[in-house]
Amino acid sequence: MKEKKATVMDKVRPDLLVLPHIVGMLIHLVVGEWQPEPSQLEQLIAHLTECLYCRTALIVLLSAEQEYEKLNDYPEVSARNLLARFVTIHHEIEAQEYELMGAYAEAIVAEGKKKADKRFPILAEHIRRCPSCKSTLEETLAFLKEP
Q1: Of the candidates 80, 65, 72, 78, which has an alpha carbon nearest to the alpha carbon of residue 33?
Q2: What is the domain extent for residue 123?
Q3: How many domains is the chain built from?
């Protein structure tokens, strides 16, 4: 178990192991070293709905777990089933995020940033904290403002 964790840890960017990211917790969860309390599980789910990086990390971890199960001839296919379900959820979240980001960008162009922030307060707050989403918004705004 420890060698599996060490192999996974070597492939994770160090900045993803510090807050606000939860990759460290996800690693402990996937390798069976941590069982979250209900309140921790709620926080975990809330973060995963917001954070593309941690969702992607979870997909990678589940893929590694699936490979580990296959190599060790585990009769159960729990990682594969969980991976398939989570990938579907991930794609649904991404589609909604892109639609929401587009609507927010259109609102900024049409109504101004203050009004758009009031219409999309959760997204506006997330963009203030997330460099990747901020960059995506800036690119979208530049595209919308092109003649």
Answers
A1: 65
A2: 90-147
A3: 2
**Same structural domain for residues 63 and 96?**
no
Give pairs for 126-134: CB < 8 Å, separation 24+.
Answer: 126/50, 129/20, 130/51, 132/52, 132/53, 133/101
Write the single-letter amino acid at 21: H
* Residue 79 · residue 62 · CB < 8 Å: yes
Between CA 126 and CA 93 the distance in angstroms is 15
Q: Indicate if 16 and 72 belong to the same structural domain.
A: yes
pTM: 0.59
- Taking the C-alpha atoms of residue 59 and residue 90, their distance in angstroms, rounded to an integer, is 9
Per-residue pLDDT tens digits for 39-95: 888 888 888 888 888 888 888 888 888 888 778 877 666 666 777 777 888 778 888
